[in-house]
């Protein structure tokens, strides 16, 4: 029997063999859920990126189909083009003109990553490393695909961002019924911006909007998705959700990847986040902020340490300690400013760089391209780190890892590197810190292993089902599985609900796992009062669907369940901390068994309030190498891979304080393979 290797997921999708990453081209068509994914046809590490394909009737049982877009068969030559992430739509109106009357083309929209300078069959020229948007179509319901001969359909980003041609990817396309046109959201990864385009035929695209850069922005923005959902099921209260992947800079592992979201409005052209979903990024007080600047050279104007821009940043509020402006007569005329010497005592430097995107200011003083700031870190007069901020698009957050420089004497220099015109140059507070801090964000999932999440096109308007790559770029290629590497999360139904006075994204596994749950609960227990201690249950489990609910007792601390427990007591702990109102997954026990990455062990927390009756509710899906926890109505989720020894299968309920009305239901889950 296949699919029984160590760590092989039993009810999550994984390919029979080889590497996968992002889910792509999710489309529901003729009663089938199609799922494509980033796939290496020849190995179980990232490479030769193609689109693999699987299909399902129920989102649980999947069959692999032939590779849909094969990098070894790229029209311009084997491996000259890699098929990066994207989406797919059913072109019911045949707006693309593909096929013949009466046929319904499926159209995939993806990023072409070109691996050399060349002229394409369409006569367009591309450079090595360029990322462009392309389309392919299928006339046999998704089985076989042909690339459009006019590819790419978007050669590069708009001129204000032309230097970003290697960081322009992951188009998500959908039909916007209210405007009768297609919409694409696509990422400018290093700028932390999402561009919006529209089209009537999926071939000609016009830019309509630009969103960012806010909330978590310390890594690359990838894999955006945009969709409408009713709030609390009310058709007259439709909001739009923008999901964006970030890598690195996520909440669970700052060196790794994760998924954030914004709630807002969409008018067919622009996405505007509701003010409440834009979170500020206050710099914790204990950081050392060097404000001791020596002015060295000035031309028309000067660098001025100032607090002028407190709260006035384009996205509402970072304290800027420096602010300079030129008198407008040309290149680099603000000169530079060098700090006095200091000793590097922390591992990271974080700062914000750029120019205010306030249109009044940009409009009055120059075009975005004219304005550029460079920040250098100098050790013994040598530039050891350098970052240039292209401005006009707002302030972006950058950071340097300086762990190799701890103990060295250094200074920082700010340079006006603008190439002409007027310039407003800014660098924000320069922060020295020991951890590469993520910024505040609305996280779709607070665990380490839910990335590049995207959702199905082709379902009823209000049905939104998403799935994520259940892995993390911090260690993804090293996880100890073979001959496959990586699985997908459980598919999740997404809804918007008012929870604790705030509109939030809530998610629950979809579909119900009941077809796999073999009959009655394996265990059904109730404890009226639970005092500090552990209760070991008389069973061993490797895959289970559990529901644990409880209330705070007199002196509540932590209450939860230990899974995959060994005779040494080491386990995966899933629980709730009443003191901080957070649920958690603790896989720090993995230190004993997992040597593939020191970033793997850890404890992950998500905010969760008890409901109005004071009940805490945790739904827990355990598979052979993963645990997914949905708290409350699903307003908080934590997804984490686990790699426990096969022998460690015990289950116990724990409480370090008092809890009451503790109820546990454990359903066994069978295999879909
Ligand atoms: C995200 C990502 C995408 C890219 C793909 C390449 O995980 O980096 O941005 O399209 O993977 O495989």
From TrEMBL:
GO cellular component: cytoplasm
Glycosyl hydrolase family 32 N-terminal domain span: 12-274, 435-509
Keyword terms: Glycosidase, Hydrolase, Signal
Record-annotated Glycosyl hydrolase family 32 C-terminal domain positions: 518-667
GO molecular function, one term: sucrose alpha-glucosidase activity
The organism of origin for this protein: Trichoderma gamsii
Residue ranges of coiled coil: none
A Pfam family reported for this protein in Swiss-Prot or TrEMBL: Glyco_hydro_32C
Biological classification of the source: Eukaryota, Fungi, Dikarya, Ascomycota, Pezizomycotina
An example Gene Ontology biological process: sucrose catabolic process
Annotated protein name in UniProt: Levanase
UniProt family annotation: Belongs to the glycosyl hydrolase 32 family.
């Amino acid at each position: 029997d296949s699919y029984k290797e160590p760590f092989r997921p039993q009810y999550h999708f994984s390919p029979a063999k080889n590497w996968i990453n992002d889910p792509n081209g999710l489309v529901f068509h003729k009663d089938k859920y199609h799922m494509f994914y980033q796939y290496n046809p020849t190995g179980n590490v990232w490479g030769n990126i193609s689109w693999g394909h699987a299909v399902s009737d129920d989102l649980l049982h999947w069959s692999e189909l032939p590779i849909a877009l094969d990098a070894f068969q790229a029209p311009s030559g084997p491996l000259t083009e890699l098929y990066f992430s994207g989406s797919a739509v059913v072109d019911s109106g045949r707006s693309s003109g593909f096929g013949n009357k009466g046929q319904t083309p499926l159209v995939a929209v993806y990023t072409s990553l070109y691996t050399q300078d060349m002229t394409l069959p369409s006569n367009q020229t591309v450079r090595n490393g360029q990322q462009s948007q392309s389309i392919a179509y299928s006339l046999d319901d998704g089985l076989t695909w042909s690339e459009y001969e006019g590819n790419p359909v978007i050669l590069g980003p708009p001129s204000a961002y032309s230097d970003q041609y290697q960081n322009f990817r992951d188009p998500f396309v959908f039909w916007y019924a209210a405007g009768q046109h297609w919409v694409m959201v696509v990422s400018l990864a290093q700028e932390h911006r999402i561009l919006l385009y529209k089209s009537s035929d999926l071939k000609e695209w016009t830019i309509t909007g630009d969103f960012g850069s806010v909330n978590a922005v310390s890594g690359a923005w990838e894999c955006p998705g945009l969709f409408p959902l009713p709030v609390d099921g009310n058709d007259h209260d439709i909001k739009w959700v923008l999901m964006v992947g970030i890598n690195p800079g996520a909440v669970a592992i700052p060196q790794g990847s994760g998924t954030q979201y914004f709630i807002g409005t969409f008018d067919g052209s622009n996405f505007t986040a509701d003010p409440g979903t834009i979170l500020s990024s206050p710099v914790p007080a204990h950081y050392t902020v060097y404000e001791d600047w020596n002015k060295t050279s000035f031309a028309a104007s000067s660098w001025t340490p100032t607090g002028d821009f407190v709260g006035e940043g384009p996205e509402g509020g970072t304290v800027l300690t420096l602010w300079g402006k030129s008198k407008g007569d040309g290149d680099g005329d603000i000169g530079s400013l060098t700090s006095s010497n200091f000793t590097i005592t922390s591992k990271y430097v974080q700062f914000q760089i750029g120019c205010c995107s306030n249109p009044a200011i940009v409009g009055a003083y120059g075009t975005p391209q004219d304005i550029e700031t460079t920040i250098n870190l100098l050790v013994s007069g040598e530039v050891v780190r350098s970052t240039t901020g292209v401005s006009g698009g707002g302030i972006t957050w950058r950071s340097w890892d300086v762990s190799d420089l701890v103990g060295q004497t250094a200074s920082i220099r700010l340079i006006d590197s603008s190439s002409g015109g007027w310039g407003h140059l800014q660098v924000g507070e320069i922060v020295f810190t020991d951890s590469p801090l993520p910024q505040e964000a609305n996280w779709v999932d607070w665990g380490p292993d839910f990335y590049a999440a995207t959702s199905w096109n082709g379902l009823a308007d209000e049905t939104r089902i998403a799935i994520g790559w259940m892995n993390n770029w911090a260690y993804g290629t090293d996880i100890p599985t073979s001959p496959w590497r990586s699985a997908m999360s459980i598919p999740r139904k997404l809804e918007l609900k008012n929870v604790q006075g705030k509109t939030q994204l809530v998610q629950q596994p979809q579909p119900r796992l009941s077809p796999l749950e073999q009959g009655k609960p394996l265990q059904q227990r109730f404890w009226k009062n639970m005092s500090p201690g552990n209760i070991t249950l008389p069973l061993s489990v490797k895959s289970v669907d559990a529901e644990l609910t409880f209330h705070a007792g007199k002196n509540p601390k932590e209450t939860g369940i230990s899974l995959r427990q060994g005779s040494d007591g080491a386990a995966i702990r899933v629980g709730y901390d009443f003191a901080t109102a957070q649920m958690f997954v603790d896989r720090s026990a993995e230190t004993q068994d997992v040597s593939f990455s020191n970033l793997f062990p850890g404890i992950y927390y998500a905010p969760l309030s008890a409901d109005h009756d004071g009940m805490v509710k945790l739904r827990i899906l355990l598979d052979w190498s993963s645990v997914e926890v949905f708290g409350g109505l699903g307003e908080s989720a934590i997804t984490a891979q686990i790699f426990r020894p096969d022998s460690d299968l015990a289950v116990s309920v724990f409480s370090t304080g008092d809890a009451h009305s503790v109820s546990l239901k454990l359903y066994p889950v069978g295999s879909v393979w």
